[in-house]
Write a structure and sequence with these properties.
alpha/beta; binds threonylcarbamoyladenylate; binds magnesium ion; 4-stranded parallel beta sheet; disordered C terminus
């Protein structure tokens, strides 16, 4: 069994943080909650530790990792924040916004963590534990979501244990993640800022701060963010989008008032009976996992509005519904 320590009471949390500091300092892997999802963290400047992250997740090496820092100063040691990036950092950090910026010549985030790119993805999470660990280590922490590559992201410690198990040295259990979808990833490279991944900070909020409309990725075949592959965030079951009825044998992912015939579904999870997108985001990944456990081969997902956090929710559902790579399809059938 992988070691799991609680962050839920103060004394235990101190011990857990101490243990995490030791593991990270020794080049190990620690899974910890952030406001978005659980991340799988390691010293971003240690190529061997970072290689273990890729191996644990089964993640393709062309897909770079986010470097988590304790604040703007550590961010600026790793990358060049232009006026736009600086403004967003001041406004939204700590919080679910990742800024992709040109890397600094003296930056220590290793090549493998950046997948060899000249840019670096930086984020200051709300989690005090993650920020203190980066500060104490004196270096950024690389941290992808703590799931097998392509699968549903974890919002509970138990999800991490089920997905990655022994591949992790230590899991810190801080309970459920309040935001529930990953950070918004925004490229501030040259020209106008580009939305690479919708996420926990709605694009409209960023646009309101900047007073400009964000460019969006439209060419799905050549993602500018290497992680935005068509199939991702996928449960084992198939997903049918914009469902207006439940077919025999299907499980139902509901939003708002359930569909007629919902009682016929193999299992039902309602993301938010009152139609609240914040609540729906927080529940999304847990609900997908539970519907998967029902054994249904197909999940019917009701339509969800696209404003606010709805953009991130719809992005994840579209990718979960996308055709899977062959190997995944074989696994899903098992
Ligand atoms: O909320 C989150 O962002 C979580 C928590 C743990 O912080 N982390 C997370 O990491 O979602 P991950 O690895 O699952 O997703 C990171 C995304 C990927 O789509 C990756 O391709 C993109 O960020 N990314 C990282 N570095 C990049 C870069 N230099 N240029 C473009 N995209 C980059
Ligand atoms: Mg991920």
């Amino acid at each position: 069994m992988v070691q799991m320590l609680s962050l839920l009471d103060r004394q235990a949390a101190e011990r857990a943080e101490h243990a995490a500091r030791r593991v990270l300092g020794a080049g190990g892997l620690v899974a910890m909650p952030t406001e978005t999802v659980y991340g799988l963290f390691a010293d971003a400047s240690d190529p061997q530790a970072v290689a273990r992250i890729f191996a644990a997740k089964g993640r393709p090496r062309f897909n770079p990792l986010i470097a988590h820092v304790d604040g703007v100063a550590m961010a600026e040691a790793q990358g060049a924040l232009d006026a736009t990036a600086r403004r967003l950092a001041d406004w939204f950090w700590p919080g679910p916004l990742t800024l992709v910026v040109p890397r600094a010549a003296q930056g220590t985030v290793c090549d493998l963590a950046r997948a060899g790119l000249d840019s670096v993805a930086l984020r200051v999470p709300r989690s005090g534990v993650v920020r203190r660990l980066a500060r104490d280590l004196g270096r950024p922490l690389a941290g992808p979501s703590a799931n097998r590559s392509g699968r549903v992201s974890p919002t509970l410690a138990a999800h991490v244990a089920a997905d990655l198990g022994e591949a992790v040295d230590l899991i810190l259990d801080g309970g459920p993640c309040p935001v529930g979808v990953e950070s918004t990833v925004l490229a501030c490279l040259s020209g106008a800022p580009r939305l690479l991944r919708p996420g926990g900070i709605p694009a409209e909020e960023i646009e309101a701060v900047l007073g400009v409309r964000l460019l969006r990725e439209t060419d799905g075949n050549r993602p500018a963010s290497p992680g935005q592959l068509a199939s991702h965030y996928a449960p084992r079951a198939g997903l049918r989008l914009d469902a207006r009825e439940v077919h025999p044998g299907e499980a139902l992912l509901a939003f708002g008032a359930p569909l007629d015939g919902a009682e016929e579904a193999r299992a039902v999870e309602n993301l938010s009976p009152t139609g609240d997108l914040l609540q729906a985001a927080a529940r999304l990944y847990g609900a997908l996992r539970r519907l998967d456990e029902s054994g249904a081969a197909m999940i019917a997902a009701m339509p969800i509005p696209r404003d606010g956090l709805g953009e991130a929710i719809n992005d994840r559902l579209a990718r979960a519904a996308a055709p899977r790579p062959k190997e995944d399809a074989a696994q899903a059938a098992r």
